[in-house]
Design brief:
This protein has 310 residues and is of the alpha+beta class. It is built from five helices and 13 strands. Strand 4 and strand 5 form a beta hairpin.
Length: 310
């Protein structure tokens, strides 16, 4: 069964369509490399090890996550589904049509996002809106994600990161693997269904040097945060991701899966990758905000990623 939230497969399909402004020879070369490398996500080259802790970050340009039900504000006390006691409603943002601009480091013509409100995730039970506070952010269509400083090549030549905002309905069970490299043989018998259980299992994962879970609140909704680090021991200079993770099950370093899916829902792109996760309970639904970046990414880019959640 193909995972509906499989970032790798969806991004491969997106890039396989090709950019509208890329010359034919370059387009063919990029597409051939993408089709030849199974499940490779091109949102940043992960190489240099670094330890990042989740700490409150004060930022001049505020970015806000707005969570709302489609058709009614999720933050409203009068919303359906027993939402009493939630924070007061905020006006639903108006989303402008994206403007087309050329990425500063890209040979691929993606659609640049204008500054302001942008709906990154829409489900029948909620939507997640980001406040784009600076230029050069690009949507990854169908992936519930935005990215910056990504040239769209495989492997990428730019240093960048991405912000993913994923949501699952109440009652969804998560398989947090005991060992991301040996995920097929370390699937837990008991599924995790709450932010606390998911974060605790991620924190105990082998080889990710995960931080201890911390209490967080986003938009008035409580949850847990945890940071994961992919070991540099997998690095093989000049190798593809599949070659670097060749000793792992199916050449995949998988963080977690969702019940009913046969492959990891979220897996690593390469050695050194950092993922800062905010795992929230939004009236029973599970929302995972994922700031993932190259450890050599500029500090200001990391600050922007954190601001989307904080």
């Amino acid at each position: 069964m193909t995972a509906p939230h499989d970032l790798d497969r969806q991004l491969q399909a997106f890039l396989s369509d090709g950019p509208t402004e890329l010359p034919d020879p370059s387009f063919d070369a990029v597409r051939d490399r993408i089709e030849a490398t199974h499940q490779r996500v091109v949102i940043g080259p992960w190489r240099v090890p670094i330890l990042n802790k989740l700490v409150p970050v004060g930022l001049a340009a505020a970015a806000v996550i707005v969570v709302a039900v489609v058709g009614a504000q999720l933050l409203s006390p009068t919303s359906p589904g027993g939402f009493g006691g939630a924070p007061s409603a905020s006006p639903s943002p108006t989303v402008s049509s994206p403007a087309t601009v050329a990425p500063t480091t890209s040979s691929v013509a993606w659609k640049g996002l204008p500054e302001g409100a942008f709906v990154v995730t829409t489900r029948e039970f909620l939507r997640i809106t980001l406040d784009i506070a600076s230029p050069d952010w690009y949507e990854l269509p169908g992936l519930d994600a935005v990215t910056k400083n990504d040239d769209g090549l495989d492997p990428p030549q730019a240093v960048g990161g991405a912000f993913l905002a994923r949501a699952w309905p109440a009652g969804t069970g998560f398989q947090v693997y005991g060992d991301p490299c040996k995920w097929l043989t370390t699937i837990p018998e008991t599924l995790a269904t709450t932010p606390e259980k998911i974060a605790t299992a991620l924190s105990a994962q082998a080889s990710t040097d995960a931080t201890a879970p911390m209490d967080v609140t986003v938009g008035g909704y409580a949850g847990k945060s945890v940071t994961l680090h992919v070991p540099m021991s997998f690095e093989v200079p000049g190798a593809t991701r599949e070659e670097e993770f060749a000793d792992c099950d199916q050449s995949i370093f998988g963080f977690y899966g969702v019940e009913g899916e046969s492959e990891p829902t979220r897996n690593a792109q390469g050695p050194g990758q950092i993922d800062e996760l905010w795992i929230l309970d939004v009236n029973g639904a599970i929302v995972i905000l994922d700031a993932t970046y190259d450890p050599a990414a500029p500090a200001e880019l990391v600050d922007e990623l954190r601001a989307f959640a904080e």
